[in-house]
Amino acid sequence: MLPPRLIVTRPAREAARWVRELGARGLGVCALPLIEIVPEPLTGALAAARQHLDGYDAAMFVSANAARGLLAPAPATLAAPALQAMATRAWSTGPGTTRALLEAGWPAARVDAPPPDAAQFDSEALWARVQGQLRPGLRVLIVRGGDAAGRLAGRTWLAEQLRAAGAAVEQVAAYRRAAPALDAAQRALATAAAGDGSRWLFSSSEAIANLRAALPAQDWSAAVALATHPRIAQAARAAGFGTVREAPPTPEAVAASIESAP
Asked: Taking the model in full, what pTM does it have?
């Protein structure tokens, strides 16, 4: 018999990959994306950042969506040979972002990221990796997401560290994060999973907020959450999830956590 269902709440593209990888490990798994990714059009500040990417010493990508949003949209004016020729380093927060950078043609030798066995994949882990590159006047582009209105959104911790060290920091939104409109089947799935032993896999506190907004009257005290970062675990507890566990944000670690859970 399959173990209790695991619900992957990542955006649709990432959720599909996680469902495949976790399903291949024999887990009962389904996707319920709780964040919708809307690419920004390649105009204005985003187009300028892409055109002048070789003018930065480093480009920090907060996610795979940030990498795809800056490097992959058509028209493909930024081809792999251009990425090979420039000296700009790419700073990646984790394996998914690194994968997107390599797929876009960024040379692996110029990608800096936390090691694959890092306890966390976040700004702090990346900072430990790239801090030695810091010098006054270093030009860093941070490619991130925006809120539903397109305003820059997310943590500012790394930008603050960079500026404190004398770096010149610019930021640009490559995509928007919006709350999806759940259909009747998705609402039924979520309501059932609040108490049927399913495990909710959360990789973002925003996904938890969107779930609460979609089902404001739902009692989560019998629900089980698996969070990929301590801040996300804290958000799950604040939302009322009765059981909250943590696991590193890789399919292998998530599978191992589920298999070892009582």
From this structure: 0.84
Mark residue 116 as left, alpha or beta (left: phi above 0; alpha: psi -120 to 50; beta: remaining): alpha
Residue 76, pLDDT score:
53
Weakest-pLDDT range from 34-38, 50-54, 82-86, 217-221: 82-86
In this prediction, residue 1 carries a pLDDT of: 35
Same domain, 86 and 118: yes
**Residues 57-96: b if buried by 16+ CB within 10 A, e if exposed:** bbbbbbbbbbbbbbbbbeeeebeeeebeebebbbbbbbbb
Give me the residues paired with residue 111 across strands: 90
Q: How far apart are CA 50 and CA 170, in angstroms?
A: 13
Structural domain boundaries enclosing 19: 6-35+181-260
Report the 10 Å Cβ neighbour count for 23: 15
Of 178, 193, 218, which residue constitutes the final position of a domain? Answer: 178
- Interatomic CA distance for residues 189 and 212, integer angstroms: 14
Which of the four pLDDT bands, split at 50, 70 and 90, describes residue 153? confident
**138: in domain:** yes
CA distance 112 to 110: 7
33: preceding bond cis by omega (within 30 degrees)? no
Q: In what order do the strands lie in the sheet with 89-92?
A: 36-39, 168-178, 139-146, 58-61, 89-92, 111-112
- Measuring CA to CA, which residue among 45, 52, 39 is closest to residue 86? 52
